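Worked example

This section walks through a single chain of length 291. The input is the sequence exactly as stored; nothing has been trimmed or padded.
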Amino acid sequence: MSTLVLTLITGVGLGALYFLVASGLSLIYGLMHVLNFAHGAFLTLSAFIGWWVAQALGTESWGSFLLSVLVGAGVGAAFATVTELVLIRPLYERHIEQVLVTVGLSFAAVALFEGIWGTDPIHIAGPPWLRQTTEVLGARIPNTYWVLMIAAALVLGGLVLFLKRTRYGMIIRAGVENRSMVTALGIDVRRSFTLVFAIGGAAAGIGGVLAMHYSTFVSAHLGSTLLIFAFIVTVVGGLGSLTGAAVASVLVAVLQQFANFYLGGTGDFIVVILLAVVLLVRPAGLLGRKA
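Given that input, the structure is written out below as tokens.
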């Protein structure tokens, strides 16, 4: 029983991490129809800067941990904003060029990070509580998973409230549906679209810093590795659906954990099979809208 509980809860926690990485990706595609292959670079840079902040203030204090998360969000937002203004804005409605530019940026970013911080992983020790466990029905759950679940819930709630309850959220949704009409009303839609990228980058930044604490290290390839699962989650949940991304994150991670434990470490293979089945049976994804 304890093994089942441990596998299930850690699967949900891992799903929370996948959602933190995939939420910005899903948001940007859902509202801007831009497949951003440089999303992992946002995450990695945020993790490195978050590590630097934690090192400067003391890695074992909660203050440095929380500040590193906030700084990571800011770095991710700034990187995403610059990317949208310089590279993406001239290429709206030119999807092939968008893919090529963002793929190129992701490769260039990895090379730059390796040049600055080296090719070896840099290990980090967060607050001692994160390395401890909490017992649930006989299973000892690492506390890192609880932090991931809380952060994912806050990010999901914040994104939904922003899009549905704020003026800018309504402008963004209206601009996606009918850009010319919103522009005719005197509203600068381009500024709203830049804000979407900034929010997506901030979500990636939070995910990057927390991924660093989950893995206990940061490297130039941290974002690239997680980006693979972020794309799988985004496709399985439905391109552009935040709710779908949340559901798919938990489904993919729990399935992966159970397969790793009960089927001899075949979690990644089972996830790829799930992706193939979804593409064959429901190409739009679990909660995606049919074109």
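What to look for: Residues 2-281 form a domain with the ABC transporter involved in vitamin B12 uptake, BtuC fold (CATH 1.10.3470).
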